[in-house]
Every structure is written in C-alpha cells, then in structure tokens.
Design brief:
Blueprint lengths: L1 H69 L5 H14 L8 H4 L1 H10 L13 H32 L13
Length: 170
C-alpha cells in the first residue's frame, strides 16, 4: 500500500510538472502570437505610409505634367504617355475606371504607346517616322479638346507637392 501511495505521489508530481510545462508553453505561444500581430500591424502601417509617400510623389508628377500639357508646354502625346504610365503605378483607394474618367488622355495613349521613341526611332526610315509623326499629330488634333478637359480634371484631383505648385513653365 505504501508503494501504491508513493507511486501515486510520484505520478501526481510528474503530471503537475508536465501541466506546469504545458502552461508555460501555452503562455509563450500566446505572447508570440501577440508579438506577431503587433509586428504585422507595424508592417501594415509602414506599408501604408510608404504607399502614401509614393502616391504623393506620383500625384505631384502627374499634376505637373498635366499643367504643362494644359499650358501647351508639353506635347499631348508625350504628356499622355507619361501620365498614363504614372497613373498605372498610382495606388487608388478603389478600382478606378481610368479610360472612362480620362478618355482623351487614354485615347492619345492608345495611339502612341506602341510608337518608338529615342534610339528606337533611328531604326526606321524617314518616311516611316514621318508617317508615325503624322498619325500622332492627327491624334493630338482630334483629341485636343478632350485632353485639355482631362488635364483640368487631373490638376484638380492630383494635388501638387508643397512648393511645386509654383513651378513656372517657360
């Protein structure tokens, strides 16, 4: 009988030790989960901040190009190409229908997006380059009114960074 009591006591001590160890592991797991949630929240905040900073830079560039186009300091074809690429990188809060919102700039972009630029133009004959330029000029003329209206919308919707609203185009 003494042996039985001793075995029960030893068994109870072992079970109590294992229960204590399991409790410690559960506590550490809980603390680890809290730390992970905290780190994820910190990463989300950092990501949101970097997205805001990136959007601010993009908005500033988009705004300045639209102003230059509106003041006819930048060709509509070049400006449309640049604005469309920048807008494609901008993180909008919801899905934007950009072609529907800026139809003139989108139409111009569709015309010039496949046209060669810079060194790539040198590979073509003068006749081919003139043909492409003529198509581009016709498209600029055709969409000029809508592009100007789109530029006005963009200037209102994409705010310039502080200080850059005073940039003067000569």
């Amino acid at each position: 009988m003494n042996m039985m009591i001793l075995a029960l006591c030893v068994g109870a001590v072992i079970i109590a030790g294992l229960a204590f160890y399991a409790g410690q592991l559960l506590y550490k797991l809980s603390a680890q989960k809290k730390q992970i949630v905290k780190e994820q929240a910190k990463q989300q905040a950092k990501l949101a901040q970097s997205r805001l900073e990136r959007n601010a830079k993009l908005a500033d560039s988009i705004h300045l190009i639209a102003r230059a186009m509106h003041q006819e300091q930048c060709e509509f074809s070049e400006g449309s190409l640049r604005i469309w690429v920048l807008m494609s990188q901008y993180s909008f809060t919801d899905d934007e229908d950009l072609p529907g919102r800026y139809p003139g700039i989108f139409a111009m972009y569709e015309v010039v997006k496949e046209m060669p630029t810079h060194d790539a133009r040198k590979k073509y004959s003068k006749k081919e380059i003139f043909k492409q330029d003529s198509a581009r000029w016709r498209a600029e003329e055709t969409h000029a009114k809508q592009i100007k209206a789109d530029c006005e919308k963009i200037i209102e919707e994409f705010k310039a960074a502080p200080g850059s609203e005073n940039v003067v185009f000569n």
